[in-house]
Amino acid sequence: MAALMERIIATLLNPAYAIANLGAGLNERIANFGQFVRFVVEVLEGIGHVRSWMRRDRVGRQLFFVGTASVPVVCLTGGFIGMILAFEGFRQFQSIGQEARLGGVINLSMVKQIGPVLAAVMLAGRVGCSLTAELGSMRVTEQLDAMKAMGSNPVRVLVVPRFLACTLMIPPLTIFSNLCGVLGGWVVTTKFYHADPALYVKYSQIFINWYDIMSGLVKSIFFGAGIGVISCWKGFTCKPGAEGVGKATTDSFVTSFITIIIMSLVLAKMLNDIDFMIHGGIDSVFK
């Protein structure tokens, strides 16, 4: 605390000190970003070296851990989110006599935005943190340096299978999340509030097309790739000691979450503009 106060006082008394600190901070962040870009390029290049990662004990294990083992938590959260949306929106739609149209709103929200983002957040929390902790522990115990000394490329052997698993398995996880969310909304709306099931399904079919479903899956691919590369990068660059691994794990989730939100915003704008150009307008749930 005393050291921090001394730095604050020195900064206030000496503007040049503040400028120097700002420049040093910017220089460090630019250098870190450059190293991250090089890491991403190395990962993408490593995909071409199939012999390094195409082994059952490498890619197969990661596919199971990222995909199959994540299905229960993704289904659980997706189903509850669908039910929550139904509980929150039913009375508003009922007040205008359009409760059956709630299915179009819930299901469209799930397949275009909530399902992919929900699956990505679950992946970042459950898988991303685990990958960072695993690779960070290997770095702290100098296992990564040992691999390099033996002539093995740790990026190709360790990172590429994890990156591919996150990228390839998140679309199926998104589908599971979407299906459970749709089912949850249907159960609450038709069984709890006794809305007409036939109309509920009808309006869902009217306002959801294949482009909406595919746009959500496209988003999920970008989310998975971002989570995979960020989690592995944080593990590869963690500081020594248990504290360094813990901080890297926290940074991994926070950075992945912020990346998911930013990607979601950019992709939503781009994909909606493309949809508007293709169909020449939008379909309203109140038509």
Short description:
This protein is 86% helix and 0% strand.
The Rg value, from CA coordinates, equals: 23 Å
Mean pLDDT: 85
DSSP strand content = under 5%
Approximate helicity band: over 70%
- From the spread of the alpha carbons, the general shape counts as elongated
Main sheet: strands, sense, barrel: none
> Structural class of the secondary structure composition?
mainly alpha
Poorly predicted regions are none
In words, what does this structure look like?
It is a single chain. The protein has 287 residues and is mostly helical. It contains eleven helices and no strands. The chain has helices spanning 2-13, 15-47, 50-53, 56-66, 71-94, 102-140, 143-149, 154-192, 197-207, 210-236, 241-279. Helix 6 (102-140) crosses helix 9 (197-207), helix 8 (154-192) crosses helix 10 and helix 10 (210-236) packs antiparallel against helix 11. The mean pLDDT is 85.
List keywords for this structure.
mainly alpha; 86% helix
Helices, strands, pairings?
Layout: H1 2-13, H2 15-47, H3 50-53, H4 56-66, H5 71-94, H6 102-140, H7 143-149, H8 154-192, H9 197-207, H10 210-236, H11 241-279
Helix pairs in contact: 1-2, 2-8, 4-8, 5-6, 5-8, 6-8, 6-9, 6-10, 6-11, 8-10, 10-11
